[in-house]
Amino acid sequence: MLTSTLTIYTVLMLITFFSLEKGVELDHHWVEFDDVRYHIQVSMKNPHLLLLSVSLPTPSSETIFVRGLPFGAIEAIKAAYGNLVQILDPPRDGYNLTLKFNLAKLPANPDQKHAFMVKVASIREVVLGAPLRVILQHLAARTVAPDLDPPVALVHRPNECFFLFPQADKVTVVYPMRFNDSIDIVLATSFLQEFVEARRTAGLHNTPPCSWSVTPPLEIKGVPSDALSANAGFVTFVIYPRHVEGHKLDRTVWNLSTFHAYVSYHVKCSEGFMHTRMRRRVESLIQALDRAKPDAENSKKTSFNRSFKRLGLKDSSTN
């Protein structure tokens, strides 16, 4: 699956080094897949304070946001970062969340510092995956999260969401797959059908059951039609307690949160591969046509070197 921590982790480690050791003022923006935007600031006046602002995808009307964040996000931030972070209220303009980290309180042990910076780099998973984590934690305990009426809609792309139907023994996850480009729709449909078939191969029996359909599954029949406008079908996963036990929980949360981006990545790779094959094929055809052309200089030499001898009557009689 996809990973997002490498780039942000590299930036954070550079900022930590330069701000603490060099006292350099930094102001850095970047955008991640699914329109998640980051802004990191460190000032010369307070080089030990790092401001990290995060902008999330625009939620659809079906999702539950509390003060601009998915439900459970505040609790997840406090649990992940403890007293090393302060949540600014209100956040910076144009962002859903602004966190203030005190770099002077980072652990002195290099391994502990590394582990904490990886947590900071996983801010996307902590915030967007918070409601999903709550539901799956209850699944691990064979219970259902209270005050949640199924199906539960969770944002994962701008104005788009996926749906969860939690039960005590399983959680059904449904993705309406939408793509803008007609070629992407065809490639995604083919990829998803192969993806479902691959689940049936040997060695993958312990993975969550997966299915694909053109029509919405029964679990989300009551969802408004606007939220079900999928042009590449619907993908359904069934998550059981064994899939969220212990360390498996973090990976399951990340994989489910970024499934659409995972499909989009492979669709674009397939499209790029086909374009490369097509270009190579065209180049080989052009080379074949070039080889088939007659050599103009050789043809001219041949025509000019030809000579004809006129035969007289004597020569003809001799022959």
What can you see in these coordinates?
The protein has a domain at 1-128: Yope Regulator, Chain: A, CATH 3.30.1460.20. A hairpin with a 2-residue loop joins strand 8 (152-157) and strand 9 (160-166). The chain has helices at 5-22, 73-81, 110-121, 123-128, 130-140, 182-198, 248-257, 259-292, 296-305, 313-318; strands at 26-32, 36-42, 49-55, 65-66, 69-70, 85-87, 97-102, 152-157, 160-166, 171-176, 210-213, 234-239. The mean pLDDT is 84. With 319 residues, it is α+β, with helices and mostly antiparallel strands. The radius of gyration is 31 Å and the shape is globular. The chain is built from ten helices and twelve strands. The strands form three sheets. A five-stranded antiparallel beta sheet has the order 1-2-3-7-6, with helices on one face. Strands 8-9-10-12-11 form a five-stranded antiparallel beta sheet. Keywords: Actin-binding, Cytoplasm, Cytoskeleton, Signal. Residues 1-23 form the signal peptide. Component of the Arp2/3 complex. One of its GO terms (molecular function) is structural constituent of cytoskeleton. One of its GO terms (cellular component) is Arp2/3 protein complex.
In a nutshell, what does this entry contain?
The protein is of the alpha+beta class and 319 residues long.
Structural class: alpha+beta
The low-pLDDT segments are none
How far the N terminus sits from the C terminus, by CA atoms, comes to 88 Å
Give the rounded overall mean pLDDT: 84
Q: How is the main sheet built?
A: 5 strands, antiparallel
> C-alpha Rg, in Å?
31 Å
Main sheet strand line-up: 1-2-3-7-6
Number of strands: 12
Shape: globular
CATH architecture of the domain at 1-128: 2-Layer Sandwich
Seen as an oligomer or otherwise, the chain set is single chain
Q: What is the CATH third-level topology name of the domain at 1-128?
A: Yope Regulator, Chain: A
CATH class of the domain at 1-128: Alpha Beta
How many H/I helices?
Answer: 10
Element-level helix/strand string: HEEEEEHEEHHHEEEHEEHHHH
Helix content: 40-55%
Estimate what percentage of residues fall within beta strands.
Answer: 15-25%
